Amino acid sequence: MANKTSEVLGKRKKDVLEAWINNQIQDPTLREDLMSNEELHAQSDELLNSFIQAVKTNNYTDINTREYSPIVEILNSLSITRAYAGFTPRETAVYVLSLKKAIIQIMQDELRDEQSQLVEEIIKISEVLDSLSLVTLETFIKGREEVILRQTSEINEISTPVIRVWEGILALPIIGTLDSERTQIIMENLLQEIVNTGSSIAILDISGVPTVDTLVAQHLIKTVNATRLMGAECIISGIRPEIAQTIVHLGIDLTGVQTKASMSSALRTAFTKQQLVVTKAKVKQ
After folding, report:
1. CB burial readout 46-57, b (16+ within 10 A) else e
2. 248 within 8 A of 144, measured Cβ to Cβ
3. In terms of C-beta density within 10 A (0-12 exposed, 13-18 middle, 19 or more buried), how is residue 249 classed?
4. How many CA atoms lie within 13 A of 157 on its CB side?
5. Of 131, 58, 57, whose CA–CA distance to 96 is shortest?
6. Is residue 79 a contact partner of residue 114, using CB atoms and an 8 Å limit?
7. How high is the mean pLDDT of the chain?
8. Could you say which of 4, 69, 136, 266 would form a disulfide bridge with 260 (CB–CB 3.0 to 4.6 Å)?
């Protein structure tokens, strides 16, 4: 008998859809706060219609064909949307795998007296839905990677604020570990702000950097040199005693780099260079 699955799906589409949605709702990982039952029903109905049209061609092995294009497109869109919304990989995989379970339930009911054909149809359905499940997961993972990259970029931007503390003086407090990518962002932000403000002094405060090793020192020296090329002077502050000992122990050469133990000390130096005097106001009694 040719394409029995297509015949059963066409006849009992409503039952398959109901079983599919019930399978999803009964899954303990489904979070109703991320998707309403109405949205779930609409998505499932659209995909099931496209799936029924595809299996009518009797193609159960190659999903890279024209008849499966609408299904792959729906799954790609759904996976990206779910990745951005915060669904887990399991929740996304369950969407397709629960369809397989629903179809098998209906096929068992329809072909309970034709066991050999039932086995044959289940194997075909499993093959095509497993392939579609893999497509869904691959797209979901790509979506999550995009989210992580975007969030990492946003965190790096937020974690490297360039502050204009006074006319001609910038400060950049650095918190956390320095690596090549973050140093590049720090350098770009600092140089751009020097251009925007015409500042001549920049203070790099590393009191929030947990450790300083040879690589971190090289990153700082590169930033200092780039600042000089822009015609500004750079002061590194926040060097704690333990970090000073580490720098000496590692033999890191900071010759030519002005350093201060604290931000206040660096600011005092910057004010002196700018010929600024800050005095305590006299309060009238």
Report:
1. ebbebbebbbee
2. no
3. exposed
4. 6
5. 131
6. no
7. 87
8. 266
Rounded to the nearest 10°, the torsion over CA 106, 109, 115, 119 is: 10
Strand 163-166 relative to strand 169-175, pairing: antiparallel
Torsion of CA 81, 34, 147, 42, to 10 degrees: 0
Distance, CA of 159 to CA of 284 (rounded, Å):
42
Residue found under tokens 């996304």? 92
pLDDT reported for residue 1? 46
Which uninterrupted H or E stretch holds 204?
strand 201-208
Pairing of strands 169-175, 258-259: unpaired
Is the pLDDT reported for residue 285 higher than 70? no
Distance between CA 46 and CA 43 in Å, rounded? 5
pLDDT greater than 60 at residue 41:
yes
28, burial (CB in 10 Å: exposed 0-12, middle 13-18, buried 19+): exposed
Cβ contact 205:175 at 8 Å:
no
Compute and round to an integer the Cα radius of gyration of the chain: 31
Q: How many residues are there in the chain? A: 285
The label of the residue with tokens 């497993």 reads: 130
DSSP-derived 3-state class of residue 164: strand
CB neighbourhood size of 176 (10 A): 13
Q: Which two tokens stand for residue 197?
A: 């403000």
Q: pLDDT tens digits for 107-124?
A: 999 998 899 999 999 999
Structure token pair of residue 22:
């019930």
Token pair of 255 as six digits: 């010759």
Kindly state the tokens that stand for 222.
């590169």
Query: Could you read off the pLDDT of 42-80 as tens digits, one per residue?
Result: 889 999 999 999 999 989 889 999 999 999 999 999 899
